[in-house]
Design a protein that fits this description.
The structure is a single chain. The protein is of the alpha/beta class. Helix content is 38%, strand content 15%. Helix 1 links the parallel strand 1 and strand 2. Helix 1 crosses helix 7, helix 4 packs across helix 5 and helix 4 packs across helix 6. It is globular.
Length: 198
């Protein structure tokens, strides 16, 4: 069974990480999470969530396996017990820089470092605006290393009617970039009223 690790870091947009975990669990994917110290504060401020991440991230009666952000002895810290796929959503610019530098000061950074060295899929969902030249350089360099960069930039071609649909769009694109084969909820099907040609 594919193991997926989701790291939620301290950028605004914590809802992306929450919905990502819940979508994986509802799709019966073995899901693990790391919630950074700063992310716990953002989750409380933005969504009113506090306490045990495994509890507030649960979906459909299933809960993810949660690792403490400072536990460098946890399985995601080793190549021999690394997950198959890792997503960082949202990914703060500080976390992106640390992944690029390979500092491995906490479990999020170390797990990402492991994914890079093992050449396993690593997807980041940066959430910052505007992006400085330094941010853009870091993201470009991560892309050159094989990291899939999926900015939190929702589309509007499907006529979204709620913020939830915009969130779902970004979550779907992150999952697509991870290669998990889960169906897209809002695929491009051409302009409204366009006839199919075949």
């Amino acid at each position: 069974m594919t193991r997926v690790l989701v790291a939620i870091t301290g950028a605004s947009g914590a809802v992306y990480g929450v919905r990502l975990v819940q979508r994986l669990l509802s799709s019966d994917v073995a899901t693990e999470v790391i919630v950074s110290r700063s992310a716990r504060r953002v989750l409380e401020i933005e969504l009113g969530l506090r306490g045990d991440p495994a509890a507030f991230l649960a979906a459909g009666g299933l809960a993810p396996r949660a690792w403490e952000p400072d536990d460098l002895l946890a399985p995601p810290a080793s190549g021999s017990t690394a997950p198959d796929v890792m997503l960082v959503a949202p990914c703060s610019m500080g976390t992106a820089a640390a992944i690029l530098a390979g500092t491995s000061d906490n479990l999020v950074e170390r797990a990402a470092d492991v994914m890079l060295k093992e050449r396993r899929p690593l997807v980041i969902v940066p959430r910052e605006t505007p992006l400085s030249t330094l941010h853009l350089r870091h993201l470009a360099q991560l892309s050159e290393l094989g990291v899939r960069v999926v900015p939190a930039m929702p589309a509007f071609y499907f006529g979204p009617r709620s913020i939830e649909e915009l969130i779902e769009f970004v979550v779907d694109r992150a999952l697509q970039a991870a290669g998990l084969g889960l169906p897209l909820r809002h695929p491009w099907e051409g302009p409204p009223g366009a006839a199919a040609h075949g």
